[in-house]
Amino acid sequence: MYRAPVSEIAFTLKQVAGLGEVLAHQHHGEVTDDLVDAILEEAGRFAAEEIAPLNVVGDRQGARLENGTVTMPDGWRDTYRSWIDGGWNALTGTPEFGGQDLPTMLHAAALEMWNSASMAFALGPTLTMGAVEALEKHASKDLQETYLAKLISGEWMGTMNLTEPQAGSDLNALRARAERADDGTYRIFGQKIFITYGEHDFTDNIVHLVLARLPDAPAGTRGISLFLVPKFLVNADGSLGARNDVRCAGVEHKLGIHASPTCTMIYGDNDGAIGWLIGEENRGLACMFTMMNNARLAVGIQGLGVAELATQQALAYALDRRQGRAAGKTGEGMSPIAAHPDIRRTLLDMQAWTQVARAICYANAHAIDMARLAGDEAARTHWSERAATLTPLAKSFATDIGVEVASLGVQVHGGMGFIEETGAAQHYRDARIAPIYEGTNGIQAIDLVTRKLPLSGGEQFRGLIGELSAVAEAASEAGAEFADAGDRLAKALASLSDATEWMLTALADGRQQEALAGATPFLRLFGIAYGGAMLLKGALAGRGDASPDAARRLLLARYFATSRLAETASLKEQVVSAASAVLDYDPLV
Amino acid sequence: MYRAPVSEIAFTLKQVAGLGEVLAHQHHGEVTDDLVDAILEEAGRFAAEEIAPLNVVGDRQGARLENGTVTMPDGWRDTYRSWIDGGWNALTGTPEFGGQDLPTMLHAAALEMWNSASMAFALGPTLTMGAVEALEKHASKDLQETYLAKLISGEWMGTMNLTEPQAGSDLNALRARAERADDGTYRIFGQKIFITYGEHDFTDNIVHLVLARLPDAPAGTRGISLFLVPKFLVNADGSLGARNDVRCAGVEHKLGIHASPTCTMIYGDNDGAIGWLIGEENRGLACMFTMMNNARLAVGIQGLGVAELATQQALAYALDRRQGRAAGKTGEGMSPIAAHPDIRRTLLDMQAWTQVARAICYANAHAIDMARLAGDEAARTHWSERAATLTPLAKSFATDIGVEVASLGVQVHGGMGFIEETGAAQHYRDARIAPIYEGTNGIQAIDLVTRKLPLSGGEQFRGLIGELSAVAEAASEAGAEFADAGDRLAKALASLSDATEWMLTALADGRQQEALAGATPFLRLFGIAYGGAMLLKGALAGRGDASPDAARRLLLARYFATSRLAETASLKEQVVSAASAVLDYDPLV
User: Fold this and answer.
1) Which of A383, A570, A573, B390 is buried most deeply by CB count within 10 Å?
2) Where is each Acetyl-CoA dehydrogenase-like C-terminal domain found (chains A, B) (predicted)?
3) What is the ipTM of this complex?
């Protein structure tokens, strides 16, 4: 069972990811250190006590579709109601409509705990949050008045409707259509697939945000508009009116997150679903990207959440399960398997990867906060570029970590890991979606290399490497126990720097295909180097501290430095050398 | 759907793994090249046409237990009967009892295809094969006369009963007990778990091989005996007699291989299950190890089989699914995703890893054959040590590859990969058991480092590195298209050599714990270097050959050399440097 790692989360927020800087800049009131601790404590309590018990029953029962109605697993609706009653859905969102508008960093921390408790549960509110952001930024005052308060409180939930069978990663191929009605509304027709929480029994109404084309729209992504399509129309007094012409036609049978209803949605069986335009006609993609960027961090946090849970369970099992006798074992009986060096190595791996994912996600949240809060334009641009740079890393590297750590968790459990009742297998199944949705990890890597590396002529990224180098230097000068890790980090950053310059040159020289061929290894190289720096930063924060926590953090940084940082040289080599074979391969012949 | 890659398999057997050498030494008749091709062709046909259609229905229905009886999925029993009628179960086994005694290499190739078609199906006969080997080597003439012909034909199936709840990796803790009866038989009592194909409806009888302790046995593994316990007793005329006192009390609900019944077996509810001793009292573990070594290769082949299947499906999907427009695309419409560099890289990865797994498994089979066939004692010792060295590599590296490639296969499918109906997810679930059973991959790595590396004072392993170096040299001298890969392989082998000497020194100096801490990265280092050498060996065999197959093999070798071989330097670093942090970590405090 999940135990919320509140103190490690607080440490990472404050000592590694820069929460203090955000709190110093806050524009909206007094979020104090004490309040932060209280929120984390209470969010962790809710996660562990209320949400975590849902996870297994959710996996077993799944979301069930019958006659167009989706029934959620036993206990799920009650917990959702209790969750929104506690105000948890409203951590973010504008105060004008009841939101607490807390820093993204704090929300990220809470989201980690809810995802550890149950990824399928935390996913629904994540979509609602995205809808709130899109409405706050792009919707008319009328639409905001009608929908925002209920979405922020969680009384209603929101969805994102992008994908169609022929249009997944490539939204150019979108076919859903919208027709203008005389009263200024629109009629929406078409089929959408893979719609997360498209239908459920948590709330009385569901607010669908739907991408569709107007009849006279230009081809491609410049001809896509965004519409708000409520499941039930809303009367002037806010009460629910007629059922809209939208229905759930199917729920997917998935590898994992069984309790999250992944729906096929049909719009316009009859006269068309009534929709309201969000933003301007043909500018829908820009509105949708508002949702998607934060959703990408939220998906990265799913990887983090699953990794934390899998690590906790593997450690508990390894301490409990006895097999063999470890070196130095005295007395009768067998040793806990955690005493064997190969299992210790595996547990260190799991802990280090999880902490790396946490540091990356929180740093991304920090940049998002700073981009909003920083005092001057230049600083806001800097942080906005930093957020843009870290988002593909958080989305893809943390989700790769989720899968890897969940798989190691199965392995630590031995044969029991393959038995569903143990629970380790569920994480392995649940985690597997996160590298896929919200832009596959391959697309994230392409985004990083082709759009983010060139920001400010490469200076944004070079500046980031410079900050990481400062950590390496500090470690190298911090005494014997830090020096080796510092030296190894410096080498890793040299590899990152070499690969970065190679990429920037390739892009500048028009060798785009070569850059694309190396995008995924480049992203991994970035993630490992960044992660190693963050672990070391955390360890340095405990310099001179004799506590077990400080010792553990130093150990993780040393382990990661000696086991993972050397991989960066290999990845750099792959970036600069493998493109030739990749591009010589033509699977189409 | 699966298509048997017969020509690639034949190529790997003959040009990479040394089948010619085995055929030249064969002691038992005329296995010609033509016969080899005919057997591969026919085994592949049976796999693709008869077995492959079982795989999805097996996953959906699973093996179902009711009142102690296990019903296999629809169509499974008929196909099994048709499989044994075709003589496929008798490829191995002594001719005295109807076996064809074909080389292990040929059996490995057939087993790959059956596992690709359905891992859950191929697993049952693998266990029977293990029982046959144990009986051939250790059982009395009487037991052989009674059981071998029926097990070799497949009319009856066999099982291995080792694990108990408290005794998994550590058989010291075994508690099942055996009592001597007056008639020379034994009475067996106890509970066994995780018994693969412990109960099913394929055959009229099931022959359980069971580890248990005699009352006066020494403690630990020196006090374990092996017994044959048939489900039904066998009359003197070979007909089936009374039901023995053994039953299936449960079938596990597993992550994958749902159709393989994983049973809890209860021996001796009443007066004890009647058992016959195999080999000598208290020497049961030695007999069991006869089964386990070949079973380890067979599990490695499961990883290979799943990797091949996942690769085929991902490639087919990537050629079919269209999204986006690749560079150079002309005309209307979208490109197959296989045209995008990141997907091409992924497909190359999957193909290269699969071929590496194939080469390693077949080379292991080659060594097993040569250990039996070689003319003189020294050669047999050499090959026996080689087989012992390659077995943990085949078991663990090929199964890690199975998981990795299956996961990449899900990723290539995008959102569809997470939908169970697509089929990619099943491979990801099925593959996950192989790194666990038959000795976890961690235990394989420990076996490699502590038992296999020191064989002949390390000369066996040094000799192996020398053979791989000859491949690197040949490539470096084979012209421009091979030279770079040859140079990269030489560097990788230098890393392998350095890590090997470090390990041997650590063991010699009594730093056993340090060696154990680095065992898993060492095994991966060995696998990558070995795999890179085998890909290059295959490519060199096509030197001067203008065929597409030869070009593809060179491309895979180049890709692997530029993308994976550099990882060896990082792994060497991990072997020699990470032990300090691993051993400083004490999860018990």
Assistant:
1) B390
2) 466-585
3) 0.97
